[in-house]
Design brief:
The chain has 906 residues and is of the alpha/beta class. The chain has 37 helices and 34 strands. It has five domains: 1-120 and 212-254, ATP-grasp fold, A domain (Dna Ligase, domain 1, 2-Layer Sandwich), CATH 3.30.1490; 124-209, Acyl-CoA Binding Protein (Up-down Bundle), CATH 1.20.80.30; 264-376, ATP-grasp fold, B domain (D-amino Acid Aminotransferase, Chain A, domain 1, 2-Layer Sandwich), CATH 3.30.470; 414-546, Glucose Oxidase, domain 1; 565-655 and 690-904, Phosphoenolpyruvate-binding domains (TIM Barrel), CATH 3.20.20. Helix content is 47%, strand content 17%. The protein starts with 5 loop residues before the first strand and ends with a helix. The protein binds adenosine-5'-diphosphate and magnesium ion (2 copies). Belongs to the PEP-utilizing enzyme family. It catalyses: pyruvate + phosphate + ATP = phosphoenolpyruvate + AMP + diphosphate + H(+).
Amino acid sequence: MSTKYVYTFGDGKAEGKADMKNLLGGKGANLAEMNLIGVPVPAGFTITTEVCTEYNKQGRDAVVAMIKDNVEASIVKTEEAMNAKFGANGDAFPLLISVRSGARVSMPGMMDTVLNLGMNDETVKIIAEKSGAEKFAYDSYRRFIQMYGGVVMGVEAENGKHDPFELVLDKVKSDNNYASDAEMTVADLKTVVAEFKKVVKENAGQDFPTNPWDQLWGAICAVFDSWNTERAILYRRMEQIPDEWGTAVNVQAMVYGNMGETSATGVCFSRDAATGEDLFNGEYLINAQGEDVVSGVRTPQEITLIGSKRWAERNGTSEEVRAKDFPSLEEAMPELYNELNAVQEKLENHYHDMQDMEFTIQDGKLWMLQTRNGKRTGAAMVKMAVDMLAEGLIDEKTAVLRLEPNKLDELLHPVFEKSAIASAKVLSKGLPASPGAATGKIVFSAEDAEEWSDRGEKVILVRRETSPEDLKGMYAAEGILTERGGMTSHAAVVARGMGKCCVSSAAGISVTPSALKINGVAFKEGDFISLNGTTGEVYEGKVATITPTLDGDFGKIMDLAENNTRMYVRTNADTPADAKTAREFGAKGIGLCRTEHMFFEGERIWAIREMILAEDLEGRKAALDKLLPIQRQDFSGILEAMDGLGVTIRLLDPPLHEFTPNDAASQAEMAEKLGVDVEVVKAKVESLHEFNPMLGHRGCRLGNTYPEITEMQARAIIEAACDLKAKGLDPKPEIMVPLIGTVKELKMQEGIIRETAAKVFEEKGVKVDYMVGTMIEIPRAAVTADEIAEVAEFFSFGTNDLTQMGFGYSRDDAGKFLPIYIRKGILKNDPFQVLDQDGIGQLVRMGCEKGKSTRPNIKLGICGEHGGEPSSVEFCNSVGMDYVSCSPFRVPIARLAAAQANLKQN
Ligand code: ADP
Ligand code: MG
Ligand code: MG
């Protein structure tokens, strides 16, 4: 059987369906599905993603030849369904079509759509005549030349210049003193069409194609080409979408929202994408085509009455003005509103998820143009999952699996401090386009946003409106402020997807490429400004922010995670305060407590420096005696904060030179403080110099050359634990030896630890349970894990070092080549962020398996950065780890990821 390249839909029938997203793209699969469930959709067809892959391999001519017959046959089917003919064809109404891209996952604004294709000097006349709406016909024609000229023929604004098409429109308007496009007459539009063709000829060096079939093939290939535009590639990289997926092409009969006052177009959501509230909402424009709503050029009206009333209240618009000038669809076209409302309910129930829909009303008839599971903020994601579970729309497993762990991060994000906000000066109020709080310096271009943020500045991107070219800059900014655009404008949709705060359509503001004015007051580049994307308020200057508390729906989500997880989550914490925070987030113990971090605080550094300077064992012991009580106190605080839960404490790990100063002044200070000659300090610092400190005298190599350090640390831990136990607490210390490569290194350290513990038990007359284990972070340790497990009671995979040593990439130097490796596709991800499952992960797997082979009940966990990264957490679950450990603020994310891993693997 030959491969099927083209799938038709229309008239309540379809060759594809919803679960064919890989082949038809999200848009195509859902267009098919909507047909199947009786939702009105204009007829058309979808060219598969496989054709895109072939296009990238074989090129244009081969692919056009391959699908030509299918496409022609499918156009005939579309003609029949819509009772129209493609091109000028005698008495028939001309069929115009849209050509739209659609990948497996939605990539908003990434791929370009061409509308009204099929228009030429003949078809426009027939349409004008048959529709009786001449102005509509010519308006559609000029839109087509503009879109096709831009998307397919590459006619666009050169850097710093105006769009040549817009210049034509501006001239016609200013010559006639028109305030808007709407005032243009048929004669004006005819002039515009003629001028547009000249613009194309001048800029593209060829005539605008008049043959509809040429137009069609040009547009289809342009969609395939757009898969490899810079911004599409960038979006894929950010969202981890493989380049191989390709995009489908959707060719669909046009329906016209710009046919006059009984026509309209809009975008709507079955629930509130910002808050999660179960309220149908959206925006529409009378007498407009789809792109008018999205581009933000005209400010759209609300679909529901309640939404419209809320809008007026936010905006300070009186009820009288609202009802007269900005009525909701519910008021303006009540019957169509009811129909749309029924469709949105049907679609949400069908897909069991919040739907983001596009619709067009053509002369009183409703057509749906798209539906997809809507993007949402972290807060909305949580609320919707909890609500839908309660409503019985989804089950618990679906609720857990649907959540994006990384999005929980947004709920942990800052909001403005109450006191700071009370005294902050409100400059303006706009639409709360994407929630959160942001404060930063004003920049006016995406490039500046990137540049400034690269050098560590926090910036707010201020634009008249945003377009897909601004994506990188939006990513780099803390928040986005736009002069124009509604809740479904590009800026709003993209910002919500990114979890960035955004305020749009702010009242009284005007933006030029280099200046911002708010109610007459000028702001320049670099001035501080603050945005509240939850209320739409814009504030002068810097406003202090705080982190929100977590309860309510968030707590319910965490309970769901708890009920469905096998692994538990610990935290990496070095202070009692961090331990406490993490415990509130649901951490069940500490996976990594780094003792050396404590050495840098206050006067402690002098004791460790004294130890480093000591010439002999006696001197070192004297210095260590000073450190003992300090360490004991630290451990006591942490063990107490994690009372009843395991606390893995790592013995001293970094090379000693990290504790000594390098500059002359600090060396002199050290000499004076410790009462030695400055030359002694210098000589010591020099002697500590290493060519490759990461592979040098560090980790257990310190403890094995200076056993007294291990002895002191073990004593501090065990004494702290005994004292707590005597007070009735339940401390559970786990002493971890770092950087083991051979079992003997561990054996010797274990000997010291156990001997010391026995002594302390005897001295105190109290005993505590404790464990001795090791970090698996040197490849040799992973490979010989069976031997090591004969001594170690637990393993904690130190995947940062394991990645460093397994790849042979110095973590501190990888910045020079990793970004290039990722760009060139040599690596898919930064292996220090996302565990390399095929390589380093295999060392982890081997370590787990070998460890269990000699000690079946060995406790297994991970403490590298990867412990808070969802795909790595899933891997840890698959190799049978007991827990993952991560920084306190990632604990909720890891808990959810752990539950998802468990549900997926069962
Ligand atoms: P995106 O993926 O950026 O949303 P779309 O392909 O959905 O792009 O289309 C862009 C705009 O064109 C949308 O507003 C959509 O409603 C409109 N549109 C697409 N196809 C048609 C059609 N057949 N008739 C009328 N409008 C259309
Ligand atoms: Mg769309
Ligand atoms: Mg390490």
